[in-house]
């Protein structure tokens, strides 16, 4: 059976992230991925959840409170500054997720943009553990979305194949700019571990 986009994003993250790791939700929005990651890393793990929008910060904070999550830092800043919030410069990040685009039922002019998205991807690749994944769910139907999609695709397609596996997962018979996934795996030594 083929996974739907959001299900596949979670499947990929869950299959590579370990308990107790530090992971990143680069665009927390309504906090659904933050909650998911919080469950995957467990109470001794840590989720850094970024958003530039006050509404997203409030909604995510409330969702974490409702679910009694103590292992999440909700950060009101752009993901391109993420290294400021990592406890050490030597630490490894277990995985990361981006949802590009705007926050549903919110201000459609506050969108992710190519420059900061690419900067954040590069920074996370630096800290990512071997065999770790960055999963990017690309929504691009909105104004400005196509430009970001093209720039991000161009960037990840030129990542060295010696160091990274880069996957695109998309349904090719759907209409109206359906979202798709880009997954970047940092190559490690030996085989890639699969938990599932
Ligand atoms: N994952 C979210 C959820 O489960 O609801 C949806 C995220 S929504 C598609 C994209 C989010 O990215 C918006 O909340 C927006 O405010 C945020 N955003 C835009 N630019 C950002 C940036 N530079 N750094 C962090 N967040 C950003």
UniProtKB/TrEMBL annotation:
GO MF annotation: an example: methyltransferase activity
InterPro entries membership: MnmM_MeTrfase (IPR010719), SAM-dependent_MTases_sf (IPR029063)
Record-linked Gene3D superfamilies: Vaccinia Virus protein VP39 (3.40.50.150)
GO biological process, one term: methylation
Protein's UniProt keywords contain Methyltransferase: yes
Protein name: Putative rRNA methylase
Signal sequence segment: none
Classification via Pfam families: rRNA_methylase (PF06962)
Domain of life of the native organism: Bacteria
Keyword vocabulary terms for this entry: Methyltransferase, Transferase
Organism classification: Bacteria, Bacillati, Bacillota, Bacilli, Bacillales
Transmembrane domains' residue ranges: none
């Amino acid at each position: 059976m083929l996974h739907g986009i959001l299900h596949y994003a979670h499947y990929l993250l869950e299959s590579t992230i370990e308990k107790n790791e530090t992971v990143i939700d680069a665009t927390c929005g309504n906090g659904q991925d933050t909650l998911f990651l919080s469950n995957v890393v467990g109470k001794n793990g840590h989720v850094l959840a970024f958003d530039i929008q006050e509404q997203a910060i409030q909604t995510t904070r409330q969702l974490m409170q409702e679910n009694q999550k103590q292992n999440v830092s909700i950060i009101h800043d752009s993901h391109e500054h993420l290294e400021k919030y990592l406890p050490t410069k030597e630490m490894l990040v277990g995985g990361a997720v981006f949802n590009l685009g705007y926050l549903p039922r919110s201000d459609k002019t506050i969108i992710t943009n190519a420059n900061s998205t690419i900067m954040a991807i590069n920074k996370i690749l630096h800290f990512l553990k071997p065999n770790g994944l960055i999963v990017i769910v690309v929504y691009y139907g909105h104004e400005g979305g196509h430009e970001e999609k093209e720039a991000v695709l161009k960037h990840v397609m030129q990542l060295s194949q010696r160091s990274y596996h880069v996957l695109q997962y998309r349904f090719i018979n759907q209409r109206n700019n359906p979202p798709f996934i880009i997954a970047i795996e940092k190559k490690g030594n030996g085989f890639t571990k699969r938990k599932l």
